[in-house]
Amino acid sequence: QVQLVESGGGLVQAGGSLRLSCVASGNIFSINAMGWYRQAPGKQRELVAVIFSGGSTNYADSVKGRFTISRDNAKNTAYLQMNSLKPEDTAVYYCNAHTIIKRTGRTIGYDYWGQGTQVTVSS
Predict the structure, then answer these.
(1) Residue 38 pLDDT > 90, yes or no?
(2) Which segments of 14-105 are extended strands (E)?
(3) Is the pLDDT of residue 103 over 90?
(4) Among the listed residues 53, 111, 109, 59, the one whose alpha carbon sits nearest the alpha carbon of residue 78
């Protein structure tokens, strides 16, 4: 079991910055990757950024060059640094942890989700 708690959301003007934090607890050593997703009203949840255990990252084209995902393993925390924010970035942002467990000769993957944190960017 993994528990995720997000924080750092808020209201900023266009062009401003925010840093989101996601603290993981529980079986943290099972986490293979952590990511940030977002969902705006009336839209589907979409991937924003993901960081894998080896350190590689992927970003949505819409945030590439503006957002940076990172991890601090000592604090069991993932971060999303968001710069040059745009009104279209307004959404609830969710932290995700993908876990890998080897048992009975096979590998099992499972996703855990945080409660979400609201990010609002005014024009």
Answers:
(1) yes
(2) 18-26, 31-39, 46-52, 57-59, 67-72, 77-82, 91-103
(3) no
(4) 53
